Amino acid sequence: MPDISVINLNAVSIYLMEIESSYLEYYQSSFTLLEQVKIQIIGNPGKKLEYAASRYLKHYIFGSKNIAYDSTGAPYIEGVGFISLSHCQSYVAVAVCSEHLIGVDIEEIREKSVKLSSRFITEAEKKLFNPGDKTAMSTLWSLKECLYKLSDRKQLLFQKDILVYKRNGVLYGSILKTAGIHEYKLHIEHFRNILITFNSGKGKLVHEHSI
User: Fold this and answer.
1) Which residues contact 7 (CB under 8 A, 6 or more apart)?
2) Angle CA(87)–CA(137)–CA(75) in degrees, nearest 5?
3) What is the CA radius of gyration of the chain?
4) Which of 11, 137, 156, 174 could bond 113 through an S-S bridge, CB–CB 3.0 to 4.6 Å?
5) Residues 48-100 pLDDT 10s
6) CA distance 140 to 198
């Protein structure tokens, strides 16, 4: 049996599993047809292994149930709830929430995040996150990746359309969606050598926007 850890917060459950090379063989017998087709077109061996491991974990938790998508493109499993998947080099994560849309991101703390920080940090965010610290920048990047998964739009600007801030000591993030700007309460967990970020609440529309 795989070693799976679970984090529970309110209506959110996050399942974490370390990646092993054996998961690469699993898709041949147990993946859905769509998953088998998708993994075959992934050329990078590391990315292929990450994909195989994430689907292995999904199947281990939910069996043969398929991932469906709502009208905004958000993934869910019938009878289970909204889901979100993420992976890094060493771990995969599946988040599930029966009550609201969920976005999860896992990241290893990397020096590279400092070098790339000018692409995603704002002046206001520099007051909360030290741009010269790899843990702070890996955390901010992860929070924005989590928020990105909550939007029904693509090609968003991380310095304009995805913002992280605090209010009354509580961490929030805003993301541009088709209906306008939505705000979500955010949560950070540290698990061994990785960061886990996700929205811990339903979110709300704070500014309507017509495209």
Assistant:
1) 13, 14, 16, 189, 191, 196
2) 35
3) 17
4) 137
5) 888 888 888 988 888 878 888 888 888 899 999 999 999 988 899 999 999 99
6) 12
H/E element holding 70? Answer: none
Amino acid at 14: I
Phi and psi angles of residue 46, each rounded to the nearest 5 degrees, phi first: -65, -45
How is residue 132 written in tokens? 């010269």
Three-state SS at 209: coil
Strands in 68-69's sheet, in edge-to-edge order, are: 4-9, 12-18, 91-97, 81-87, 75-77, 68-69
In the chain, where do the E strands start and end?
Answer: 4-9, 12-18, 68-69, 75-77, 81-87, 91-97, 104-108, 162-167, 170-177, 180-191, 194-199, 204-208
The values of phi and psi at residue 173, to 5°, are: -140, 150
**Which residues, 6 or more positions from 128, have their beta carbon under 8 angstroms from its beta carbon?**
164, 165, 166
Check the CA dihedral 106-108-114-116 and report its sign: negative
What pLDDT digit, counting tens, does each position of 4-21 carry? 999 999 899 999 999 887
Distance of CA 42 to the CA centre of its chain: 20
3-state secondary structure (DSSP) of residue 157:
coil
Amino acid at 182: H
Total-model pTM: 0.91
Distance CA 166, CA 198 (A): 15
